[in-house]
Amino acid sequence: ITIDFDFRVRVEKEPGGSGCIAVVRGPQVFALDQRITKAGKGTGTIEVDAKAIVQAKSVPPTQLPEGVRMGLDVPFTVNGKTVMLRFCDYASAGQTWSAESSLRVWLPQPFDLSQPLRKERTRH
After folding, report:
1. Cis peptide leading into 60, omega within 30 of 0?
2. What mean pLDDT value characterizes the chain?
């Protein structure tokens, strides 16, 4: 038996129709984590091609805090320029069980990079 996984980084739409997206690679989900995600400036959208593929860059393990297994720098377009936002694998996110490791998976588009971990209130 041979199983082939597509390990290109891509976005998946939230199935509830909220318009939010998540960053995934193969079977792995990635998250913003307060320990590694630094706020940016402006509001932007993740750069994707027609097949929802993202040209993210892997982060060397030496540039990640202890306990974080994988990192990706994900490109966002903000005012016509590319800005990178750092994600980590979901399994590593939020490991300290404290406010200093808040995490977030689902991102609205456009997305406020200045407050990457702020959760918007949903309306019912």
Report:
1. no
2. 90
Share of the chain above pLDDT 70, in %: 93
DSSP state of 51: T
Give, in order, the Cα–Cα distances in Å from 7 to each of 2, 27, 32, 43, 60. Answer: 15, 8, 19, 28, 17
Query: In the chain, at which residue ranges do the beta strands (DSSP E only) sit?
Result: 9-13, 21-25, 28-33, 43-46, 57-58, 71-78, 81-89, 103-104, 111-112
Higher-confidence residue: 72 or 117? 72
Q: What is the pLDDT of residue 21?
A: 96
Burial class (CB in 10 A: 0-12, 13-18, 19+), 14: middle
Q: Are 12 and 24 in contact, with CB atoms under 8 Å apart? A: yes
